[in-house]
Design a protein that fits this description.
about 280 residues, alpha/beta, Rossmann fold, seven-stranded parallel beta sheet, two-stranded parallel ribbon, 9 strands
Amino acid sequence: MATWLITGCSSGLGRAIAIAVLEAGHNAVVTARDPETLAELGDSFPTTAAVVPLDVRDHAQVVAAVAVADERFGGVDVLVNNAGYGYRSALEEGDPEEVEQLFATNFFGAVDVMKQALPGMRKRGAGTIVNVSSIAGRTSQPGSGYYSATKFALEGASVALAKEVGPLGVRVVIVEPGGFRTDFAGRSLTQSAHPIRDYADTAGLRRKENDTIDGRQPGDPKRAAEAILQVAASDDPPLRLLLGSDALRRAEGELVAQRAEIDTWIDLTQSTDYPE
């Protein structure tokens, strides 16, 4: 039995992970900004679920959530940083305050939770951190530049962290989902309020009112949750885990394009060294 701390459990992938973890017999600190959304989980698993209010932008709440895991269950074995939301905007359209809040949740909030959980993991010489990124953390699309920037930042920090804590017995896994049937493209998606007409055929095609995929995404959150449990239990988990056939296609396409670009410009790249 392990103890999990999961952020963003009110709906979608976070809730699916929480249910899967609890049904598997693990302890779980399940969190959401509105803990009332988690009352059913607390009632169904009274001895193994601790329902805690958590807005990852609130440092005091982050500290308190980790403290609950320590005091009630003896510490965090698996941390899942899942809290986050989407934002669609051309780069020029982005509202500075909205972008600041996006980074506060998707990146800085996740970092704060990791920093609070890591001392216990280091002390025990064991632990797993699962950071839920996105295929948008590997390749960016028009209209998703700011969201992708938060996920690129999370992935960059996670890769460095994996090298820092790996020798201490702590593993880091970056999960890169494609489209899943959650609220991400619906209720949880925000966007710039003042579109610029010149971007109608690029970023504008991905605005919320033009979204036709909501409810038709290929990914099943329950199966994603089961995959995350399997990876967390692995003796040799991957640093990056793609989830979904659409994520796989996009990642493979991005790798091919990057390799072709490197090969095209390789002579110029190498020409900038001092002559031997």
